[in-house]
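Worked example 2:
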Amino acid sequence: MSQIAAKLDLPEGRLETKLPDDKPLYGAAEARAEAERCLYCVDAPCIKACPTSIDIPTFIQKIATGNVRGSARTILEQNILGYSCARVCPVEVLCVGDCVYQEWHGAPIAIGRLQRYATETATRAGEPPLFTPKTRASAERKKVALIGGGPASLSCAAYLALEGHRAVILEKRALAGGLNTTGIAPYKLHAEDALHEVAWVRSLGVELQTGVEVGVNVKGDALLAEYDAVFIGVGLGADATLGVPDESGPGVVGATAWIESMKLGAPSATPLGRVVVVGGGNTAIDMARECARLGAREVTILYRRDAEAMSGYEHELAHAREEGVRVVVNAVPVGFMRDGGGTLFGVIVAEAANGRPILGTEHRLACDLVGVAIGQAKVQSIAGELPGVALDAKGCVQVDATTKRTGNRKVYAGGDCVNGGKEVVNAVADGRDAAHAMMLEWGQRTVTTKAKLAWTGAARG
């Protein structure tokens, strides 16, 4: 993408820059050779496995024929954040996991790397625009406020802008991009690359206002009065805590907070020592792998149940073990050890049954840093700002599954605040579907995903 990184306010030498890409960008010959392996399945299982329903065989065929810009358009029409999703999607359990080569015990098509090649090549500096936003008469042009600058809002805003509407993203942070910017493992996506994508979305006509927090700088009723629709894409909140003795203090941090500091903060002169990460999800595995790669003396994951119950992806856990991470299951922290100055030097661990500590089994585990990755709080305050927006028993915003509309006819929502914390690609799909639903509500014809797929399938078949 364009060389915007030099202009961004990101510290030089931050830790994430020490972690290079696991899957570097293909060269043209590599991409074409890989693309030519695709069988162009008529009833392609990879399409069905993609939450945004990208026509994967078609975009790959276009790479094979040298039509890289056409390939990128095929991707971005369905997934406007196809550049970042190419890097961050767990393709092993989505499109690549369903590739027909898997059944034949052959190497599956490297769909993510081909998608990255197409989108990065076609949107780099000097390339002409891939899309020309529609021009609408003022009577038809609507105005939409999008709360939060993460993938769901970026997706929704982009599709609205391409249809000629005014989309205004309100982001409370100084940098937009959500977890793409603050939380993705650097060996998948660096912050500067996430910000490149934000800049590209803005080039489609999307407006971005940073430092604006709904409920603080602007009230919900003011948004409803000024805008034709409001989209909620606020993601999740702060890291959950363990609630055990001596947890508060230096050395014990929330995992997402630590990852954000590692990605965006100034470099630290203090080397990583012994690290313990508490949790069994992908965030826990990410932090553990990042610490191991950054040279930590030893890294241990503590999980309260059996390994089979861990919610993190098996392939990610396997990589963690290969990188030297020790995984201890059926174990929970019940306290922390600090010296007279409050410095952490260990964690008290107990064996666990059904996730609960067994009395009398406590032992000490030396460590210098503990990352807590047991979930994040839901951002519930936003519901009180917008009448008619309801939360379910888990604190997630309730929406219609198809339209993403809440109980308030003018308010839509998507992403982590709705699904509780899924993949970037799921947030992109929510934002896109909400944008289509808004336009249908306004009486404007749009091509739905199913209609587009039916036409594409007929054209290919």
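The chain has three domains: 5-129+454-460, 143-237+377-447, 239-376. The CA atoms of residues 157 and 164 lie 11 Å apart.
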